[in-house]
UniProtKB/TrEMBL annotation:
It holds the Pfam family Fer4_7. Residues 1-30, 35-65 form the 4Fe-4S ferredoxin-type domain. PANTHER family: POLYFERREDOXIN PROTEIN FWDF (PTHR43193:SF2), PTHR43193. Signal peptide: none annotated. SUPFAM superfamilies: 4Fe-4S ferredoxins (SSF54862). It comes from Bacteroides ovatus (strain ATCC 8483 / DSM 1896 / JCM 5824 / BCRC 10623 / CCUG 4943 / NCTC 11153). PROSITE patterns: 4FE4S_FER_2. It comes from the Bacteria. This is 4Fe-4S binding domain protein.
Length: 229
């Protein structure tokens, strides 16, 4: 049974909740909105799968790690894609390729009023929502199980997220189905609080007496070097 005594030992990736066949684990927000697993002991059968799949476990499988990874620098050829993307729009190029070959893409988008969540996309139009940085912890919801269904159906899946989320994927999917799962992780500076983000939106709307209808993190019209919203 997974038990988080130190919040630094959990990233909220939902791998433990997703692997539980008895749905004994739910993700609950703390005071800042960060998601942590909570176990329903009446449903738990002590199978140990939640502990085994956790990327913070000392026995986490690192056999797929590359000892000497190759490093490349890339930039999209389309200037318009660069304008509305971050990090050279590499994700756009890769996701377009996957979609053109019948695959599916998962990335961070918005639900409700700019609440950051991971979503599934099968078209370029749906995938366009994943462009750009979102400096908030994303809610993975049922994405792990959705991806597993896609892989079982023989689809190639591209997933973009934080390094701790992709680490959870490596463990959750396992080697048998891993060949059709392409993981993209970002150079992460840690994820800010969902509740602080919600409060900031509320503050901004109150200040200007108007609803936020569109936003961009690290918008480039006044320069690329100074992060701003």
């Amino acid at each position: 049974m997974i038990n988080i005594n130190n919040q630094a030992d959990c990233c909220g990736c939902t791998a433990c909740a997703s692997i539980c066949a008895h749905d004994a684990i739910t993700m609950k927000p703390d005071a800042l909105g960060f998601l942590y697993p909570e176990v329903d002991r009446s449903k738990c059968v002590d199978c140990g799968l939640c502990e085994k799949v956790c990327a913070f476990n000392e026995d986490y499988d690192k056999s797929l790690n590359i000892d000497n990874p190759l490093a490349y620098a890339a930039r999209h050829k389309n200037e318009e894609e660069l304008r509305y993307s971050r990090s050279g729009a590499v994700f756009v190029a890769m996701s377009d390729y996957i979609l053109e070959h019948g695959g599916v893409v998962y990335g961070a988008g918005y639900a409700d009023h700019f609440r950051v969540v991971h979503k599934r996309a099968t078209t370029k139009e749906e995938c366009s929502e994943f462009k750009g940085s979102k400096y908030v912890q994303s809610d993975m919801n049922t994405v792990f199980r959705q991806v597993k269904q896609d892989l079982k159906a023989g689809l190639v899946v591209l997933f973009s997220g934080t390094p701790c989320q992709t680490a959870g994927w490596n463990s959750y999917i396992g080697k048998a189905q891993r060949k059709n799962l392409i993981l993209i992780d970002i150079i992460c500076h840690a994820v800010p609080s969902p509740y602080i983000w919600k409060d900031y939106l509320g503050y901004t709307e109150s200040k200007f007496k108007s609803n936020v209808i569109k936003l961009e993190f690290r918008e480039k019209s006044i320069g690329w070097n100074h992060p701003h919203i």
